[in-house]
Amino acid sequence: MNRLLSILSLFVLLTACETESNDPLDGNSLYGTWQLSDVLFDPGDGSGIFMPRDSGEELTLHPNGTLVANWDPCRLNGPVGEENKGKYLETGTRRFELLCATQENLFAEGVLEDGFLLLYYPCTEPCVYRFYKTADLRE
Questions:
Q1: What is the CA radius of gyration of the chain?
Q2: According to the lineage, what is the superkingdom (predicted)?
């Protein structure tokens, strides 16, 4: 009986431990992984609104100024699926600029706003990608 109780106690102890944290994500930190949720392309009359987009773009920002994405964040509407590594420069507590390799690539500015990461591209009318955070960086 004692042996059965010991085995049962050990089973409960092992299954009660979780490997993932249930802590809320830090929406005030740029660092972590972000998933594209919406895009805004204004047609030129100020009527543009964010529209849902489920194309799978993901961006991870590291504290050392490097990033990893599954698309080229320096190109607007590029293909998704290929890993791209790059750099960014923090220009404020909640702001950064993508450091794109060539001038043919677009310059984009990132801003953390209301828990979302917004990437502003240089279009005549607003072109904005909006991301939600999916993971904080764990040390």
A1: 20
A2: Bacteria
